[in-house]
Amino acid sequence: IMKVTVLLAVVLFAGCCSAMQLNQQHVSLFQTWKNLWKKVYQTVEEEEQKMATWFNNWNKISEHNMQYSLKQKSYRLEMNEYGDLTSEEFSSMMNGYRNDIRLKRKSTGGSTYLNLLSFGSQIQLPTLVDWRKHGLVTPVKNQGQCGSCWSFSATGSLEGQHKKKTGKLVSLSEQNLIDCSTPEGNDGCNGGLMDQAFKYIKIQGGIDTEAYYPYEAKDDTCRFNITDSGATDTGFVDIKSGDEEMLKEAAATVGPISVAIDASHTSFQFYSNGVYSETACSSTMLDHGVLVVGYGTENGKDYWLVKNSWGEGWGEAGYIKMSRNADNQCGIATQASYPLV
Q1: What is the pLDDT of residue 56?
Q2: 167, 207, 303, 319: which sits with the fewest CB atoms below 10 Å from its CB?
Q3: What SS3 state is found at 97?
Q4: Which Pfam families match (predicted)?
């Protein structure tokens, strides 16, 4: 907060001076950011274009945070390493949930099971759930510049189920899924589906551990070795589409749940903290796979606790609180699922 305040003060001070001085101050801010994140551009033209994008994003962040300070917004934004990307560039690079694959593959064979959860009124669900506190969640990972979010969502859910069954939390290999699950319809760094990943794991009889099959952030040759397998599944459950109560039930009683969301907005790109609420979100045009690891209420606003795969430097140490009981905002309950073990 202090860093943002100081930078904003510099911009406001510069506004009292000449246009030339203002421009010099802006360039200085951009250069500081560029050096911080070790950005390198190939040409002067590219740097000028990236700087223009950065200033546009900076202005949006500053305007949003002014509204946040006036309590007109429930979450803060913050400039981060993605500041030189437009929302379109960012989405194409980082958001790899392929809704088109899902539509083409409505039937995934015997790997899909109907959701038969029916506790509902029979039990009292807790008001706060956080599976991190029960050791079912591995540390936040970073997918890099590869549209492999779907693989991180899938491993995250299976890591939780494997821990519940065996008592051992094992970090599983996203690279294994990127390289090897193409026969099931996934497309590596070009995107995929969590359900198709679960199907692949069932067919192969396992998925290798992160230690034996480390992440590369690029497509590579499949080298799955069953002797290095860290977990497996016997199928998966698709939770009733669009039903946040069913998702809550699963998140409370099953463990971490794979979900797909609309993460195409500048507000998501620069999320910092608070309960994320984006009315422009779509509940059907989904482009990013993440992991629900719990839920709760903050300052009177219900939220889903969501683990992302953009490193700990993004959001709340790699997590985001997304609006809950807000008419399935951003489609968080539209394509929720988890593996059976």
Answers
A1: 95
A2: 167
A3: strand
A4: Inhibitor_I29, Peptidase_C1
Distance set, CA 71 to CA 64, 252, 271 (Å): 11, 31, 16
Does one domain contain both 93 and 241? yes
Residues 6+ apart with CB under 8 A from 109: 199
Q: What is the pTM of this model?
A: 0.89
Q: What pLDDT is recorded for position 104?
A: 58
According to the model, what pLDDT value does residue 19 have? 39
From the candidates 149, 180, 189, 281, give the one annotated as an active-site residue.
Answer: 149
Q: Is 281 a catalytic residue?
A: no
Q: Which of 51, 75, 99 is the last residue of a domain?
A: 75
**Residue 206 φ/ψ region, left for φ over 0, alpha for ψ in the -120 to 50 degree band, beta for the rest:** left
Assess whether 288 carries a catalytic annotation.
yes
CA dihedral 262, 264, 266, 270 (to 10 degrees): 70
Which pLDDT value is given to residue 6? 40
Same domain, 93 and 145: yes
pLDDT of residue 123: 77
189 catalytically annotated: no
Which of 146, 288, 328, 330 is catalytic? The answer is 288
Residues of the chain with pLDDT under 50: 1-20, 107-116, 118-121
215-241: burial string, b at 16+ Cβ within 10 Å, e else: beeeeeeeebeeebbbbbbebbbebbb
Q: Which of 75, 108, 141 is the last residue of a domain?
A: 75
Q: How much is the pLDDT for 11? A: 43
